[in-house]
Predict the structure.
Amino acid sequence: MILQVKDLTVRFGGLVAVNKLSFDVKPSTIHGLIGPNGAGKTTVFNSIFKLVPYNGNLIYKNIDMGKYPTHSLVNMGISRTFQNLSIFYSMTVKENILVGLHSKKSSNLIKDTLGYKINSEKELLEVSELLNILPYLSVYAMFLPFGILKMVELARALISKPQLILLDEPGAGLNPAEKERLKEIIKRIKEMGISVLMVEHDMGIIMNISDEITVMNFGEKISAGTPEMVIHDLKVIEAYLGEEIHA
Amino acid sequence: MFDIYLTLIARGLSTGAIYGLTAMGIVLIFQTNNILNWAQGNAGMFITYLAFFLLALQLPYPLVILLAIIAGAIMGGLVEKYLIRPVREKSRIGLLMITLGLAMVFEGLAAFIFRPFPRNFEPLLKGSIAIGPITLGQQDVLVIVLSTLIFASLFLILYRTKIGIGARGIAEDWYGARVLGVPVFTISLIIWSISFALSGLVGILIVPRFALEPHFMLPIQVKAFSAAVLGGMNSVLGAAVAGLLLGVMENIIAFHFPYLQESFSLVLVVIVLLFLPTGLFGKKTQRRF
Ligand SMILES: Nc1ncnc2c1ncn2[C@@H]1O[C@H](COP(=O)(O)OP(=O)(O)O)[C@@H](O)[C@H]1O
Ligand SMILES: [Mg+2]
């Protein structure tokens, strides 16, 4: 298993946002995490990144991540994107992406201090090509449309060559054409051997590309299995009643 | 008549450079830690006292300046590590109290340890020089040259080095940068060190105009804060330009209306903010989590 979530519980004051949640992410698979709004999906991601205090165990490749601080996770091979775009607007696209390499040390201290550029040109071009953002590398982020910034954020999470990537609603706000491209990109990411844990509202995306799905409601796991199993599960249908079917 | 204005402007640039340097320190800390550092001025005051006694030991002046900068860097680092870091992600209001309290502690300690009476502090350079119609103190020229160099270095650090780009990342999105592997606390410590080092340098350069006493940096703090706000609180460039503008305008005002010198900066801030709520160089900020 690349990631094991065991009895994860997160409380915010009296609210139990995640309740004894357990599931596993298998290596080189796409694992969907879905559930109605407020189910606790983002909180699972935030726990993995130590942005909220939690109980339970989060085990990455047999290592309990409990004592590793947020900024060390990239070096362990985990990266993520945010539900609400996290972009450095006053930087160029290139600078934005290179921040994703911050924790990668070069062998030479002076080179290392003097910037990312020296060693990272090749990785930068590779990832920019994958995400179709090559033409924008020198453009300041504040001038770019949302759809492209989503790709920049993804590039930033990919350039560190993670083994596990957490995507929080990567399709939100994208138009249909962009969503089609996103599907292809996520499949490519999987082909690169990267495991994907993905929260996504768009059922078209999640049912199409997920290998396995975990469904949450009110912080608890209510269903799990392949897309076909999950979509026919009465508990899932019930949880989504009143909402249009989306994660 | 015109010549007088040239001299007023030149001297204003020197004063403005001091405001600018202090404002840069305030902006750096505000951007990376999201707090106002009320202690920026008084940290410099405290270091200037140390410099005073080092000079009394007959150490060479340039060496004392260097030692003061180093002392500032160490002090800034200690403040970040032991006062700011434990509270940084826990209490915003606590942070505000910490820097305000620190400013008072520096002042109290200075009065307690060094006694509060005013002392004369000699400048490094005493003469004056004439450039065309302009007469300017050599120390003023030194201030302008040094602050230009410092500004250029800060700019290079922020835009060309890994630490600088990391710091800019932190400024826009602390948690986003953390998640990407930026060691936010280490960079924050470096920023505090740079800011306090600047503060020490400013103290030594400017104190000869006043006298050394526990609150001689107060006007500098107030005006640097005004400059930082005028500059939009978000860029060292804005802080530098606003500092220079403020220095020049204030010097001209003071020539005609000496009593208005001290209140001018705050009045200007209020007027500018009425029309440009984000300052002269500010931009609207984005928010996410
Ligand atoms: N930092 C926080 N402080 C307090 N409550 C929070 C915090 N983060 C999330 N919550 C609450 O926890 C619940 C789950 O939120 P979230 O994980 O964002 O849901 P989802 O991503 O599934 O829509 C919600 O009720 C939300 O209001
Ligand atoms: Mg969410």
Remarks:
- The mean pLDDT of chain A is 92.
- Chain A touches chain B at residues 49, 51, 70-75, 79-80, 82, 84-91, 95, 98-104, 112-116, 156-157, 160 (CB under 8 Å).
- Residues 78-161 of chain A form a domain with the Rossmann fold fold (CATH 3.40.50.300).
